[in-house]
Specification:
By secondary structure, this protein is of the alpha/beta class. It contains 21 helices and 16 strands. A hairpin with a 6-residue loop joins strand 6 and strand 7. It is elongated, with a radius of gyration of 27 Å. The two termini are 37 Å apart. The N terminus is likely disordered.
Amino acid sequence: MTDKIRYSMKIVLIGFMGTGKTSVGRELSRRLGYTFIDTDDLIEEQEGMPISLIFKQKGEGYFRLVEKNVVEKASAMTNAVIATGGGVIKNKENVDNLSRRGILVWLKTHPEVSLKRVMLEGGKRPLLDVAEPLDEIKRLLVAREELYMQSDVSIDTSFIAQGEAAQEIIEMLCLDSEKVRVELKERSYGIIIGRKTLRRLGRRLIEFRPSRIAIISNKTVFPLYKDVVLNSLTECGWKPEVFLLPDGEEYKDLLWASYLYGELLKARFDRDSLLIAFGGGVVGDITGFVASTYMRGIKYVQVPTTLLAQVDSSVGGKTGVNHESGKNMIGTFYQPSLVLIDIDTLKTLPQREFSAGMAEVIKYGVITDRELFSSLETQMKDIFSLGDSLISIIARSCMIKADVVSMDERESGLRAILNFGHTIGHALETVTGYTRFLHGEAIAIGMCAASQIAVRMGLLKEKDAERIKNIISQYKLPSSIPQDINASDIINAMEVDKKVKADRIRFILPESIGKVRIEDSVDKEAMKEVL
């Protein structure tokens, strides 16, 4: 989907009467574009009388039974803000239903404020039909406090307006960032893109209700963000395990995958556990692979910290490990539950790694978005300085990939266009043992080579090939194969690539900037000449 959207989830407001559940809920739903549901309104509509009369004529026991049925129906909603009655949390079934794929937000106020608001609304509630209502509020609050503490997060609404309360909830739950959604039949998920999102990671995991959490990262990246990540999770009640891998593409193999299986089994992780891939593409790929195969599949979340991973490998559900005969030859299609991108992590990214990520962004411009390509030419300075243009191009890149993946999850057709530059790029990585080039550097060379093949085949104008080569050079990426690498070795490596069809090497070739074609019959002599 190519529009900025909100997540498919529900936010449940709990709390005592007079805390603002209805007014805050209406404003929150308006800002999020969600449906607003007030369980008290539904009960009155169903029973055809005010709640005060239900209590008076049929008693609290009857009311709680009706409330339970209404809550069960409301809990099935998504894209909804649900305002509940003050006593809804007295029933455990209500809490279980509401918290399933939802987040419980406790609105709190001082007793005096609650009473004042109730009186301004037009009089006493059934439970306050006593001689000293303030004393009754204090008594009920003490009795229910432990129940309200079942909430996931809380805010005090005593002295803030409904709009301020709604905004605080939005920011608290990281719903104020750029968003993209990958829509699939069985496993759709959202992508969060913004600044300072890492500190809210724990709250974004609440809706998944994991039994255990493990962070999988490497020894270079994790120490830089250890405190932020662990604080984010521990404040939400989790004590995560941390498993660190060595840093490098050469460690993305079955040996290290086996190590992770062993650690998860030793820690007694079950099928309700969740893995967090915290790092670049190597960490994301191997974590996704382990998640897809451990106990036949557990949830995982991508938290990419390199530009390359943010715009490419973290989105789309390709997981895998390398084999000595080829890159990503062993893997699965397995979608994450969430992708959370914090562009502030790019501040610690070496310049070479940043440029490698830009190779994939350039790819998106060439294969489908001429306007994106042009913006890369005109906004280069702001992009290199991590300005707002960078958030826009990351979001646009994720949207392009999300659109393609949504239409072709398992690369049976259209998704193959995402491999522009990868046929030669992966071969380069293979023949150099994954140690000479960063992935994006190899893809940059592959894009230039594929463009020249397209020129030789009469598909692409020379000026467009030059434009592609120029922007690659401007983003400090290599554009040609070093002379010490043998063209025959590259072709041999391409022949064992997983993209080979019926012994034909598949190429994605540009016809213009913004349009490519899938080509299965590229002449090997032409390939050799270009290489």
